[in-house]
User: Which sequence fits this backbone?
């Protein structure tokens, strides 16, 4: 059923807003992902309560999109930002000081704030705005780090640039597979709805607050400028980054990414939680629906101030920290069966993404201690037509013994 929420506009006026979709009645995957911990009723109650405090509701939609990168047959499009694309993946280890979380577990004030902010909306911090909370402070530091070599007024518009940020929480029950996040692109969803055009951030970033859960898989694959046409053809290289507490990953905001099931080395003996802080750098616009965290929310939720001793911060040496070099893994043969299949398009039936990930090699090297991998070109394809067979029937993504299975997920 559609959920009505109380929405406060900037002038303090209340209105009844009726979202078109809810996370519990659609297979379309958004930045937050469609899989949540707890019952649908619990999620609806929490979202209604927090949205009432935080302000405008951002409906949970399919994850993001991006412009053309490497395939020659893809249509051209205008530059997505005031500078060239990021066009790479950067991984930095131990750059976030999380000593304030040691020994506190889920009771740590910062993680309590993260729980409160885990809702189906994203937030905006303008480039020149001073942070008011611990999470806004992290967003500001991400902005400064990834725009340090850019020139204001030339590479970005200081009046419009900023950071879109949000948090993720994925619960892993003892002995069960971790919760996946469907493959998606980060884009301005409102622009897609209004004008049918894809627009993406300059840089997308992930900062891991825990060591739990599956890896983020980043594929060098973009989309055309116009939404409604899918970027058919081969998928380039793939980058696989496992969660490591204090690790920061930055990649081109145009690239396809997700957290597929079946790539963890073993099931956990006890319940655990995968916490991540996400921040996307936009150089010339604020994405639709990403609003500043309201002052009333900061006060009512009693969020940590930016200078609190219980708040994590990036280390001063981050500016000079070396990148983590990946372990190179060859892709499976082009004739190998896909390890993962996802439905794509407005209904999830127009196109199919087939990925061939070297699952056995990744798991073997992960057990040996490697946590960052790069898989060569040719890891998959996007083809027209709906997903067929077991994948189209929503088969379980992971067998009991971690055998490879084709899974179906819908990506908008």
Assistant:
């Amino acid at each position: 059923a559609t959920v009505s929420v109380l929405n406060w506009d900037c002038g303090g006026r209340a209105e009844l807003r009726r979202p078109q979709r809810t996370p519990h009645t659609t297979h379309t995957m958004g930045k937050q992902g469609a899989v949540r911990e707890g019952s649908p009723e619990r999620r609806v109650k929490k979202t209604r309560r927090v949205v009432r405090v935080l302000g405008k509701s951002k409906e949970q939609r399919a994850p993001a999109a991006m412009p053309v990168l490497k395939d020659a047959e893809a249509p051209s499009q205008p530059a997505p930002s005031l500078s060239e694309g990021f066009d790479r993946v950067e991984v930095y280890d131990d750059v976030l000081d999380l000593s304030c979380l040691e020994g506190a577990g889920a009771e740590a004030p910062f993680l309590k704030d993260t729980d409160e902010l885990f809702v189906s909306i994203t937030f905006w911090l303008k480039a020149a705005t001073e942070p008011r909370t611990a999470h806004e402070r992290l967003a500001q530091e991400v902005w400064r780090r990834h725009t340090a070599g850019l020139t204001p007024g030339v590479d970005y518009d200081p009046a419009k640039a900023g950071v879109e940020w949000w948090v993720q929480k994925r619960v892993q029950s003892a002995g069960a597979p971790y919760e996946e996040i469907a493959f998606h692109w980060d884009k301005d969803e409102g622009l897609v709805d209004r004008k049918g055009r894809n627009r993406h951030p300059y840089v997308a970033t992930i900062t891991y607050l825990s060591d739990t859960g599956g890896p983020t898989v980043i594929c060098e694959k973009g989309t055309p400028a116009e939404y409604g046409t899918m970027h058919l053809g081969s998928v380039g290289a793939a980058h696989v980054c496992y969660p490591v507490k204090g690790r920061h990953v930055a990649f081109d905001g145009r690239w396809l990414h997700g957290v597929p099931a079946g790539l963890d080395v073993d099931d956990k003996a006890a319940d655990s939680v995968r916490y991540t802080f996400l921040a996307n750098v936009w150089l010339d616009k604020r994405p639709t629906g990403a609003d500043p965290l309201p002052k009333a929310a900061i006060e009512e939720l009693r969020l940590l101030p930016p200078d609190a001793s219980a708040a994590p911060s990036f280390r001063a040496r981050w500016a000079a920290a070396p990148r983590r070099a990946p372990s190179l893994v060859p892709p499976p043969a082009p004739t190998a069966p896909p390890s993962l299949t996802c439905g794509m398009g407005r209904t999830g039936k127009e196109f199919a993404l087939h990925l061939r990930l070297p699952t056995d090699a990744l798991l073997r090297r992960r057990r040996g201690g490697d946590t960052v991998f790069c898989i060569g070109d040719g890891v998959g394809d996007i083809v027209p037509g709906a997903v067929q067979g077991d994948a189209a029937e929503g088969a379980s993504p992971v067998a009991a013994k971690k055998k490879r299975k084709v899974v179906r997920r819908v990506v908008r």
